[in-house]
Amino acid sequence: MSKLRNKDDIEYHSKGFGSTIPAVNVKVYDSLANGFRKFVKYESPFDPEFTEEWIEENISEETLNREWEFACEQGWEELQELACDIYGDQKIEDRSGRHYRYRVYSTGRSGGWAYIDGINHDVDSWDAIEFSKWKRFAERARIIADHVMFSVVWSAYYNHFEIAKEEEHDRLLNQEPTDVAEVLHG
């Protein structure tokens, strides 16, 4: 998604089989390799034994999938908090008298589009303030989606690599002295 300059740049998606509404594409297009590059950039210094290869050799695909799902769930929670920060956490009343709280939902076949229930979806009627709020939400939502694979690698380091290193260290400390010498000197 490019920067939103005006209302014409807003993306839309259908909510179920209904009409189209303003939505943000929050699909994750990143790879483990790119997530690792981001980790190297933002988490330095870290143990140089932690590599992309270490992740692939020591963490099962099932575990990585769970980490990815958790990072996505965290992203949706962050989107909800963002919507509350931008639009407020109050209830509003629509024409039918129903009460809404601003809520972020997903739509699309794989749930890769985010929309906010409770806002005015008639973009043509938006003033500069409503456009500015949507722009802030949309641009931050894309950043959150782009951060998912970094989060997966971050978790691999702090929740798997460091624990494996501690277990290896403890195992070496608990060996008989002759065994330690044998390990160290081959």
Keyword list:
three-stranded antiparallel sheet, two-stranded antiparallel sheet, 6 helices, 13% strand, elongated
3D architecture notes:
Helices cover 53% and strands 13% of the residues. With 186 residues, the protein is of the alpha+beta class. It has one domain. The strands form 3 sheets. The protein has a 3-stranded antiparallel β-sheet with strand order 3-7-6. A hairpin with a 5-residue loop joins strand 6 and strand 7.
Summarize the structure.
The protein is an alpha+beta fold and 186 residues long. It is 53% helix and 13% strand.
Mean pLDDT: 88
**Helix count, DSSP H or I runs of 4 or more residues:** 6
Which segments are poorly predicted (pLDDT under 50) over 5 or more consecutive residues? none
Could you say which overall geometry the principal axes of the C-alpha atoms support? elongated
Number of strands: 7
Q: What is the H/E string?
A: EEEHHHEEEEHHH
Q: Into which percentage range does the β-strand content fall?
A: 5-15%
Main sheet: strands, sense, barrel: 3 strands, antiparallel
Distance between the termini: 55 Å
Radius of gyration: 23 Å
User: What percent of the residues sit in helical stretches (DSSP H or I)?
Assistant: 40-55%
Q: What number of structural domains do the residues give?
A: 1
Helix/strand-derived category reads alpha+beta
